[in-house]
Amino acid sequence: MRTILLLAAAIALSAVTAQSQGESPNIRVIYGTVVAIDGTPAKQLTLNAEPLGTRFVMSLPRTKTNDAGVYRFDQLPFGRYTVYVEDKKAGFSIFSTGVAGAGRPPEVELTEQHPQAEFNVHLPPPAGYLFFHLTDRSTGAPISGIEVTVMSDETTPNFLFSESCNSTEAILVSSNRN
Length: 178
Hints:
elongated, 4-stranded antiparallel beta sheet, 178 residues, 4-stranded mixed beta sheet, alpha+beta, disordered N terminus, Immunoglobulin-like, 12 strands, single chain, 2 domains
């Protein structure tokens, strides 16, 4: 009888512990607002959360802004992050709004002590588009795949990015750099 009571007490204690853990989970959230260059909310844009200082073997966390420009990433692993807009239709890419741009990107860190962080994004002007219509000189047949390297227009040109894509796809080039 005593064994049954101890077993029942252990089961009840584990149920209470599991319930209390479910009520106050370690949320690990990055949230914020995306604002366009004219100060209006950036609606329905796709964002990525890029982990910094570590290799990320899964796909990047993605989310969208709502009509007020607000976004939220939930259940992220602890670590340092930057957030960037990756929405080619709207004219934004990692090259103009994130880690591939010039300089060190702004970042936030999620830790056990600070599992939530606000990260507001202020968009640059939308990117310009490059289109290439390439054909084989001998046959006139379209060339399907290309690789483009973009350099800065400075006294000593600096590498900005390189992109491989189908030649029918647009390549976004940051509009705030020469």
